[in-house]
Design goal:
about 290 residues; MetI-like fold; 15 helices
């Protein structure tokens, strides 16, 4: 099949633009990785690009040998896994009835979800609720207050609407309850949508640090992002990580970059394994609004 000249020009422009976008997205990651593996002398002189200069792993040794880093890392993994599971369950229970045949008050409840997406309760009311429910300084203050996103509920609702209602009727005739229909039929058929929404929740939970700043005072419960914030944004170490540098300015810059890599690589490694579900889920969920 002969390809037209216009088609060839379009493909060249398309690939060029995609390559530039890929380079723009990869450069910060490659630079931070190279900086974390470079010696202080080359960092101070600004000679580090996408390749390490004066290769050294001292920054990673300092980070991985610090007990609080390991504890915070495990906390972040726990918050991400548990928070994603709770969020998926609650969001599915909210989206499922809204996606089925009309029932009294369905439009009102859908409107409540939309309003909640546009307006939040605010930081102070949320803090007061967390305190009154005795969740302050507990893991539940991280898992529950931000467990449901209105946007993700609407997205799941659209996914569920793609499933023919006749499947539920057949299951109901066989004696299945609504919960059994949800877990045995709806969830398996909505796997791309569930994975997509789960990825949204997981990334948000992994990167979250502000709730921990508000609700956690016990340093044994803080996530990795708190330490990352203290090292990178404040440009100095506090009581969480003072032993990391131990007065050595020559390694402090590398420690900052190494901490960024330690905090971001795990969540980046998840995406390739669920990419096919993510792309399919986005396409299916965009059919209906």
């Amino acid at each position: 099949m002969k390809v037209s000249k216009g088609r060839i020009i379009f493909q060249c422009i398309n690939y060029t633009v995609l390559f530039l976008l890929m380079a723009a997205a990869l450069y910060p990651v490659l630079y931070v990785l190279a900086a974390s593996l470079s010696s202080f002398e080359f960092l101070a002189q600004g000679k580090v690009g996408i390749l390490p200069m004066g290769f050294t792993t001292d920054a990673y040794k300092r980070i991985l040998s610090y007990p609080m880093i390991g504890r915070a890392y495990l906390n972040t993994i726990f918050y991400t896994v548990a928070g994603t599971a709770i969020s998926l369950l609650l969001s599915s229970l909210a989206a499922y009835p809204l996606s089925r045949r009309p029932f009294p008050g369905q439009k009102f409840m859908s409107g409540v979800v939309v309003v909640a997406m546009l307006f939040s309760a605010g930081m102070i009311p949320t803090f007061l609720i967390v305190t009154k429910l005795n969740m302050y300084n507990t893991v539940w203050s991280i898992l529950l207050p931000t467990s449901v996103s209105s946007f993700n509920v609407i997205l799941l609702k659209n996914f569920f609407q793609q499933i023919p209602y006749e499947l539920e009727e057949s299951a109901a005739l066989d004696g299945c309850s609504q919960l059994k229909i949800l877990f045995k039929i709806i969830f398996p058929l909505s796997l791309p949508g569930m994975v997509t929404v789960g990825l949204f929740y997981a990334v948000a939970q992994w990167n979250s640090y502000f709730p921990a700043m508000l609700y956690l005072r016990d340093r044994e419960l803080v996530p990795m992002q708190i330490i990352l914030r203290d090292i990178v944004i404040q440009n100095q170490t506090n009581e969480l990580s003072i032993d990391l540098v131990n007065g050595s300015d020559q390694i402090s810059e590398s420690v900052k970059y190494a901490t960024i890599m330690v905090a971001t690589i795990p969540i980046m490694m998840v995406y390739p394994f669920i990419q096919k579900y993510f792309v399919k889920g986005i396409m299916v969920g965009s059919v209906k609004g």
